[in-house]
Design brief:
By secondary structure, the protein is mainly beta. It contains no helices and 5 strands. It is globular and about 30 Å long.
Length: 87
């Protein structure tokens, strides 16, 4: 949990943890649309108390229903994933 100089958790004006606390990086998800070698697929990742779909990129093709881990968030709705466990 990230905190401010006083050790308390940082929150937005709405009382929600700041963006760093809501990052999908490190989350384990599932491929819902196969990820091809030359473009994005889609993954469903647990984040912010629910599940959200993200456009997903990978170094190699990953088939639908594969369990993956998010290793990078490249934009608000795009992530880079690897198979989990990475083999």
């Amino acid at each position: 949990m990230a905190g401010g100089a006083d050790g308390r958790e940082r929150v937005s004006l709405m009382g929600v943890p700041d963006a760093a606390e809501q990052s999908p990086v490190g989350a384990i998800g599932r491929v819902t649309v196969s990820i091809p070698a030359d473009g994005p697929g889609e993954v469903l990742v647990p984040v912010r108390g629910g599940s959200e779909a993200f456009a997903a990129w990978a170094e190699r093709p990953i088939p639908r229903n594969t369990i993956v881990m998010v290793v990078e968030q490249s934009s608000a709705r795009s992530v880079v994933v690897v198979p989990f466990p990475d083999s």
